[in-house]
Backbone:
């Protein structure tokens, strides 16, 4: 916005997508419905408890749906709902930007970071660690 304040809808969307693990979970679900174990295998660094918590958060936000089959034993699959599917171009753009950013970071190794340029030496040290 022109007055410098953050748009509440933008802020809420960025917080949801940017919450630790949410973006990776959403990216995994772009490939189609997944069982919990498939998501866990696709994101080996996440714990079962954190995956469960994040899936519940994404369900509450109406981005992910949990489908339990009627068969015995019941099979649970997670999928993007319509709002989640509409994130595909956003997540693809972030992935592309990330690839370019990592390449640029590697090419520019040794150059000062944004935090260093602003004089935030303590922040730059935290980011580097």
Residues:
């Amino acid at each position: 916005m022109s007055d410098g304040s953050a748009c509440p809808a933008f802020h809420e969307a960025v917080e949801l997508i940017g919450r630790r693990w949410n973006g990776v979970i959403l990216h995994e679900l772009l490939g189609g419905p997944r069982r919990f174990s498939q998501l866990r295998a696709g994101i080996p660094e996440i714990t079962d408890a954190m995956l469960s918590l994040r899936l519940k958060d994404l369900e509450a936000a109406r981005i992910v749906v949990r489908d339990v089959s009627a068969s015995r034993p019941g099979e649970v699959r997670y999928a993007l709902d319509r709002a989640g599917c509409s994130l595909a171009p956003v997540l693809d753009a972030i992935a592309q930007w990330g690839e370019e950013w990592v390449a640029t970071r590697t090419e520019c190794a040794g150059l000062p970071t944004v935090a260093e340029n602003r004089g935030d030496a303590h922040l730059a040290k935290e980011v580097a660690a």
